[in-house]
């Protein structure tokens, strides 16, 4: 092959390895999570900003009301997990594209997943352990929280 021959674009850069093709599953995950995120994010914005009193109705009691139902807890937690894993995997792609040295590339990708894991843990704990009745109880919840 001479230097000016154009290589078939489908030629693998390295011999195909056996086992699970993580890049393929990552690619599929980005498309699947993207579709789900559209529903979750726009559903979230619609319910919070447009239904009822709209944005004027947003206060502590509104959040407390939402987190009193497992449906909204799971909606928010799934949105959090998907957005963080999707965003982190997207950042991993960008790091792989631009950081050419192996050391810094590995450090950055580890840092990305560590931050994502920490935020997923923290966010999940906040949603599922949220208790609006910890004093001082706001007036709007006085009738709901035990005295
Ligand atoms: C609204 C719903 C969303 C949809 C439909 C969506 C869709 C996608 C798709 C299809 C890709 C892959 C692009 C490619 O491989 O060329 C992508 C990449 C990416 N997404 Fe999302 N996404 C959404 C929300 C988000 C959110 C909330 C974040 C951040 C937390 C995010 C961050 C990223 C990043 C950093 C990339 C990598 C960009 C790149 O490769 O250049 N996306 N998104």
From TrEMBL:
InterPro entries, per the entry? SQR/QFR_C/D, SuccDH_FuR_B_TM-su
Q: Which CDD domains match?
A: SQR_TypeA_SdhD_like
What sections of the sequence does the record tag as coiled-coil?
Answer: none
Supply the name of the protein: Succinate dehydrogenase, hydrophobic membrane anchor protein
List the keywords (alphabetical). Heme, Iron, Membrane, Metal-binding, Transmembrane, Transmembrane helix
Q: Does the keyword Transmembrane helix apply?
A: yes
Which Pfam families is this protein grouped with? Sdh_cyt
Has UniProt tagged this entry with the keyword Nucleotide-binding? no
User: Where does it localize?
Assistant: Membrane
Which superkingdom heads the taxonomic lineage of this protein's source?
Answer: Bacteria
Q: Which gene encodes it?
A: sdhD
Species the sequence originates in: Microbacterium kribbense
Q: Where are the transmembrane segments?
A: 25-51, 71-95, 107-130
């Amino acid at each position: 092959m001479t230097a000016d021959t154009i290589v078939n674009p489908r030629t693998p850069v390295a011999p195909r390895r056996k086992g699970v093709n993580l890049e393929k599953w990552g690619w599929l995950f980005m498309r699947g999570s993207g579709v789900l995120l559209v529903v979750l994010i726009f559903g979230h914005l619609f319910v919070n900003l447009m239904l009822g009193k709209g944005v004027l109705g947003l206060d502590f009691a509104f959040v407390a009301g939402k987190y009193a139902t497992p449906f909204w807890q799971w909606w928010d937690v799934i949105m959090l997990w998907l957005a963080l894993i999707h965003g982190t995997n997207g950042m991993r792609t960008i790091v792989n594209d631009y950081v050419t040295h192996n050391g810094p590339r590995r450090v950055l990708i580890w840092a990305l997943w560590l931050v994502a894991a920490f935020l997923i843990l923290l966010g999940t704990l906040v949603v599922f352990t949220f208790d609006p009745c910890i004093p001082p109880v706001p007036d709007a919840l006085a009738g709901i929280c035990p005295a």
